[in-house]
Every structure is written in C-alpha cells, then in structure tokens.
C-alpha cells in the first residue's frame, strides 16, 4: 500500500522525463478508463469515500449506535488539552519509531552487505532472512512473540530476564524487536541497491589506498543513499502505524501500565472499546497529518545527504 | 515533490480504514440454505460453556428440523468489541448474549427487537418479575435475563487447607479478609488473592458495603475521588505486603479464568463471578470451593444477585419468530436447562430451577448451594449501569495498572479516573 508511488531512486534522471511523443487524443482514453475502472472504483469506494466519512465523523460525537452529532472541533480540543493518555500514546509511538526504525535499517543493511559478498547459497539465505517479513504481519506470530517474552517463556528461561511483556520498561522493546526482526523488505532493496554500485568505484578506491571501512563510508554509503532514503521514508511511515504487534504483545489493551499503548492502539481503543468513533476519526486525521509532515521533513533534509549518481553526470 | 500528499494518504489508509470502513458495512447477514432458516447465535464464554451450548443447540435443531443455528463465541472483551461493530453495521446476530452493561446502549441504539412482539412463542411467566424487569428499558422488554449470578471468592481448597489458615466462614469483613490474605501469603509463600484493585466489580462490592454505589440513579458517578483513593490505598498496601498478586500477574487479567493468578497457580484465591468460576475446576482438579465476598465493617453486604447475562434478538433479523423460539428454548426448556446446568448462572425459570436443583452435578451444585446460602441476606441489585460504564470498566483496570506498577499514587490515579469517568458519563 505504501510502496506505490515513491519514485524509484536509482532511475530518477532530471530533465530526461519529457517524452518527445505527443499524448494520444482524447477519444482513445475511453478504453483506458474501462481497464482502469476496477482500480478506480476500488480507490473511490474503499479509500476516498471512507476517508471523507471519517473526516466528517471527526467533527461529530458518534457512538456507533446513535446517529452522529455535530460537535465542531471538540474532539480535537479534547485530544490536545484534556487527554493525558493521548499524549502518553504519542510519546510511546515516537519512542517506538526512534528505536525500531534505525535498528531495523542497520540490521537490514548489515545482512545485505554480508549477502552481497557471499559466493554460494545467496538465494537461500536471502529467502530465509526474508521469511519473517512474510510471517510478521500476522497476528499469530505476534502471539508467539508474546509467549516467548512472557514470564516462563523462552527468553525468560534462557536469560532469566523475567517476563518482558509484563514490565512497563521492557514491553515496548519486545514490540520493537518484532519489527526489527522483519527486516526482509528493506534488506532486499538494499541488496538490489548494492549490486548497482559499479565495481570500478571500489577498484579505484582500492588503488587510492582506501581500506574496507573507508570504501564503505566513501563509496557504499553515498552511492546507496537514495536507497537508504527510500527505506527510511517507508519504514518510518510504517512504524508510525504499528498496530498488530502492540495489540498482541500488550494483551489487547496496550499494557502493562500503557507502556505499549501506541497511537493506533489508543485510536482503536477509543473507537471500538469506548465507542467514541468521532474521537477516533479525529485521531486518525491527526496521525495522517503528522505522517505527512514527518515525510516532508525527511524529504527536505534529504537534499543535504542523498546523492544521486546522475547528478554527477551532468 | 510530486506525490507527497498521495503518499501520506496511502500511508494512513490502514488507520483510517479502521474507522471509516464502518460506514460501508451494512445489510443483514442472514441466508437461507437448502430451504432451512439459518439463525446466528453468538455468546461469550469458556470452552466448558461452549461445549454445553453446542449440545443444547443440537437438541434445538433436532426439535426444529427447519432451523439451522450457526454459533460463534469468544472471550468477553473480544466479544464485546466484535458485537459492537456488527451491531453498528446493521449486522447484529439473530440471537445474541448481552451483558448488563450493554442493555442500555443496545436497546436505545435500536439494535434489539421488542420481544413483546413474539409473546406467542417466547414465554416469560416463570421468571421472577423483578429479575425480568432488568431486561426492560422504557417499559419495553428488549432482553431476557438468562441466569442469575453473584460474585464469590473462589479458592484452591487443597492449598488453603495445607496452609493451616482456617477456611473462610459464612461471612467476613474486608479487614478480616485482608488479614486472612496476609496469613495465607505468609504460610504458602504465594499471594492470597488476585489484587482486587483492578476490578471495578470488586470496588462496587466494597463501595456498597459502605452504603454507596457506583452510579447514582440518574446515571452520574456515585462516589468521589476520596472513596476510590481509600480503596486503592487499601489494595496497594496489600500488594506491597505480598498479600495479593504483584503487578506483573495482575496486568495479565483479561476476563478468562486461565489468566488469573489462581488459574496460573500463582495465588490461592480469586474474586470472580460464580458461573465462570466453574472454569477453575479444569485448572485445579484437586478442588475449588466458593466463599462469599467480604462485607462492610458493620456487616453490610456489598455483593448482590445480578442477571449474569441476557439474551436479545436483533432488530434486523429476518426470522424473528424462529429467533424467539431459540431464546424460549434456552430459557424455558427443561432438557436444555439440564444440559446447560449453571454454566450461565442459576436458571431464571423458577419451576425449572426447582426441578433441576436436585439433579445438578459437580460444580453446578456448588454454585447452587453457594447462591442459596446467600438467599435473603443480600440487598437489591442496582439499576442497569449507564452506557458509559462499558468503556469505564477497562479504564478502571488501566488506571490501577499505574498504581500497581508504582507510576502513580492511589490519589493521582483516582483523580484521573474520576475525571475520565465524568467525561465519559457526560457524553
């Protein structure tokens, strides 16, 4: 869902996008729309319409049973000024993003580097490391995770840590670790990016006397920065929306002591447990805006650290 | 940069879909397969209750070959959420089990059928009028109480006897109870009970023992932050002394007996409702017994007989008559009563209650005897809680987590709760 329209970084060439051919005339667009219609219908019925309804609901008091009642900005005012639990969920989510995203990207890059230099069995290991990402979105693996980190669970038995999922200081880390473990998608993208770096750059660097570490910092990192940026944006957006692992590990209520009550979980709680759909919709819109702002900020900073090889060609 | 907005939009679709999808749901979930009437019947409960319900439903299908019943059940918390979403989408089951807390919301929200329309097949003459009235709102009978329950202190008989602490008697006050829990903890090395601070139900019993109530008659809050502070200070002290379960155990409570400290073998007793307490027997096969809840210091009882659950019929059902027949069967059929036993509380149909009393077996008998020992000594039940209570039950547990993990003082948490409760009851 989130992967759809971030431009593929490696192929972006400013100035090369205008095609010389004229667009086909209007009458020939008919068939195109016919073929597009399933997607367009889906987008309207399943995305745009519900979004419009949710925007409307965010200005109402709606308990699921009685018709929505218009309350203006009250939901938003209450959220920002009268709900300490809301702010706790914001802090929890930010903490989670700051822990999970860098750890996950670092691990993905490390494994991609190891795989790149591998001579045999690359396909096997690539699949093996990717597997958790396929499992990870499911509820069942999150429940397994809860059992593993519970008191008397595997981790407790091996390391004597006690049940992390019942300790407010540790439960969020268990959630983050589940995300980190699902590093498959960024890893595959890193791997593709690494293989596109021309070998002659490394040869030139080696001739200049650069060691492995120097090569990594001066060749790999800048050449890989568009891919790194792509992964960073994608994973950050996903991390803000974490739900399933927090739901399962926090036993459905963001426990213990609200320590895994991330934003979407509190949103769910307000909407489906407390039956305040208006308030939950308002929370969803604030999340949308915050993710938009964070993404914009990332794009802004990218100008100073993302290097596109094509820029050098000009 | 093109696509900024689209990106953000797509990204949030998951969160939004959650809320927004509701508008899209609709239609009745009924279908007729092979000329048969198909009814959906949902409830919450444990595997024991599920097994007995399936048996009873099979008997119903045998008696009514033209009706097929599709059943589904889950644990209480999950059930509550799922049913709310189904109901709001106009997709409520034909027959649904409801809690006392849900009646107000579901009846006033137009989810439930007026059962007077089906008087011909749904008999209520054998139910105590006072009990029957608990399923009524504005003089309309929206739901039928299915069983009668009360709270109890369920305990592991073997562990308690082995400790040498005298077994609980016919009544005890909260301070006697606390002393007993301390003694049990000292002798067994395990907490005496689940920390009752997390339970809104236990708080209500304590509150009623002091002559107060959770809610006022007009649906406002019946207690002050001082009352709650006193309660949480009392339980917090017991927890610090090790007399009741530690925070790590308490936080795992989810309404199932399996996740209580008693069920996990980490405590000697647990305050619970009497019907679900039957689930403990599967976990503690050496024996479970029931003692009354503690009373106020002057002996005022706090616990009460409550309709443990109701049956309602969806207002949108295509087969109101058949749905009412199923409700009638579950409440008034003698064979069904024998199968169901006390798994949903003691039957409400009085002649069936008397007839089956002598035939009750095992734990059902324990529950029946426990209830008859309290007969006549308890005060009247409070009226149905206001609909906001549905959310507050979870908030109560959540706020107490802050106390038991020592992140807030009882005073701070109590004031938080009272603020939240007032906002909830106002809206």
From TrEMBL, chain A:
Q: Which InterPro entries match?
A: ABC_transporter_permease (IPR051393), MetI-like (IPR000515), MetI-like_sf (IPR035906)
This protein's record includes keyword Cell membrane:
yes
Its localization reads:
Cell membrane
Sorted alphabetically, the keyword list is: Cell membrane, Membrane, Transmembrane, Transmembrane helix, Transport
Q: Where is the ABC transmembrane type-1 domain?
A: 90-298
Q: Which Gene3D superfamilies match?
A: MetI-like (1.10.3720.10)
TM stretches of this protein: 32-59, 94-115, 127-149, 169-194, 215-234, 277-299
Signal peptide (UniProt feature, chain positions): none
GO BP annotations listed: transmembrane transport
Concerning its family, UniProt says: Belongs to the binding-protein-dependent transport system permease family.
Identify this protein by name: Sugar ABC transporter permease
- Write down the species: Streptomyces muensis
UniProtKB/TrEMBL annotation, chain B:
Give the region (Disordered) as residue ranges: 372-427
* Leader peptide range in chain numbering: 1-25
Q: Which InterPro entries is this protein grouped with?
A: Bact_solute-bd_prot1 (IPR050490), SBP (IPR006059)
Give the keywords, sorted: Signal
Q: Which Pfam families match?
A: SBP_bac_1
User: What is the protein name for this chain?
Assistant: ABC transporter substrate-binding protein
Native species of this protein?
Answer: Streptomyces muensis
């Amino acid at each position: 869902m989130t992967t759809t329209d971030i431009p593929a970084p490696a192929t972006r060439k400013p100035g090369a996008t205008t095609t010389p051919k004229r667009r086909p005339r209007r009458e020939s667009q008919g068939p195109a729309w016919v073929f597009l219609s399933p997607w367009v219908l889906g987008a309207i019925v399943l995305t745009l319409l519900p979004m419009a309804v949710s925007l409307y609901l965010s200005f109402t008091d709606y308990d699921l049973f009685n018709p929505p009642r218009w309350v203006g900005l009250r939901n938003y005012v209450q959220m920002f000024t009268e709900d300490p639990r809301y702010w706790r969920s914001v802090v929890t989510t930010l903490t989670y993003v700051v822990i999970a995203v860098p750890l996950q990207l670092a691990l993905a890059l490390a494994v991609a580097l190891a795989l790149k230099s591998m001579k045999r069995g690359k396909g096997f290991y690539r699949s093996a490391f990717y597997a958790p990402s396929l499992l990870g979105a499911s509820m069942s693996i999150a429940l397994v995770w809860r059992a593993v980190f519970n008191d008397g669970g595997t981790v407790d038995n091996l390391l004597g840590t006690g049940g992390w999922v019942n300790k407010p200081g540790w439960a969020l880390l268990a959630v983050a670790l589940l995300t980190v473990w699902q590093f498959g998608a960024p890893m595959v993208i890193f791997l593709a990016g690494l293989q596109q770096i021309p070998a002659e750059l490394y040869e030139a660097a080696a001739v200049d006397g650069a060691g492995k570490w120097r090569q990594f910092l001066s060749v790999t990192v800048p050449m890989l920065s568009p891919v790194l940026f792509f992964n960073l944006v994608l994973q950050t957006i996903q991390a803000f929306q974490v739900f399933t692992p927090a739901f399962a590990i926090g036993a459905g209520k963001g426990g213990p002591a609200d320590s895994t009550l991330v934003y979407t979980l509190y949103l769910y709680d307000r909407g489906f447990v407390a039956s305040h759909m208006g308030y939950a919709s308002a929370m969803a819109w604030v999340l949308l805006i915050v993710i938009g702002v964070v993404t914009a900020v990332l794009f802004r900073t990218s100008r100073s650290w993302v290097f596109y090889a094509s820029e050098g060609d000009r | 940069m093109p696509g900024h907005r689209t990106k953000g939009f797509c990204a949030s679709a998951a969160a939004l879909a959650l809320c927004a999808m509701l508008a899209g749901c609709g239609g009745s979930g009924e279908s007729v397969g092979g000329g048969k009437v198909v009814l959906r019947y949902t409830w919450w409960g444990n595997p024991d209750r599920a097994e007995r319900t399936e048996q009873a439903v099979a008997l119903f299908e045998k008696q009514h070959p033209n009706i097929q019943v599709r059943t589904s059940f889950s644990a209480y918390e999950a059930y509550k959420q799922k049913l709310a979403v189904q109901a709001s989408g106009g997709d409520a089951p034909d027959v649904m089990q409801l809690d006392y807390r849900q009646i107000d919301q579901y009846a006033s929200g137009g989810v439930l059928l007026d059962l007077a329309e089906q008087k011909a097949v749904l008999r209520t003459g054998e139910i105590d009028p006072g009990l029957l009235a608990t399923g009524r709102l504005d003089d309309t009978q929206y739901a039928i109480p299915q069983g009668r329950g009360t709270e109890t202190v369920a305990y592991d008989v073997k562990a308690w006897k082995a400790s040498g602490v005298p077994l609980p008697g016919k009544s005890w006050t909260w301070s006697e109870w606390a002393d007993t829990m301390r003694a049990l903890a000292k002798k067994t090395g395990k907490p005496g009970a689940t920390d009752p601070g997390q339970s809104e139900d236990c708080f209500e019993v304590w509150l009623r023992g002091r002559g107060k109530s959770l809610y006022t008659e007009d649906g406002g809050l019946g207690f002050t932050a001082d009352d709650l502070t006193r309660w949480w200070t009392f339980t917090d002290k017991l927890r610090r002394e090790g007399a009741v379960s530690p925070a790590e155990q308490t936080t795992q409570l989810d309404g199932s007996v399996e996740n209580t400290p008693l069920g996990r073998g980490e405590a000697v007793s647990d305050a619970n409702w009497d019907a679900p307490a039957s689930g403990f027997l599967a976990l503690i096969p050496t024996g479970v017994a029931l003692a009354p809840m503690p009373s106020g210091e002057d002996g005022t009882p706090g616990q009460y007989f409550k309709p443990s659950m109701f049956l309602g019929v969806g207002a949108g059902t295509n087969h109101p008559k058949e749905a009412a027949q199923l409700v009638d069967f579950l409440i008034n059929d003698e064979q069904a009563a024998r199968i169901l036993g006390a798994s949903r509380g003691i039957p409400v149909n009085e002649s069936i209650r008397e007839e089956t009393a002598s035939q009750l077996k095992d734990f059902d008998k324990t529950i029946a005897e426990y209830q008859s020992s309290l007969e006549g000594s308890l005060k009247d039940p409070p009226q149905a809680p206001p609909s906001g209570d549905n959310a507050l039950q979870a908030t109560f547990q959540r706020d107490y987590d802050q106390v038991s993990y020592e992140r807030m003082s009882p005073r701070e948490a109590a004031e938080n709760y009272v603020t939240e409760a007032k906002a909830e009851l106002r809206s």
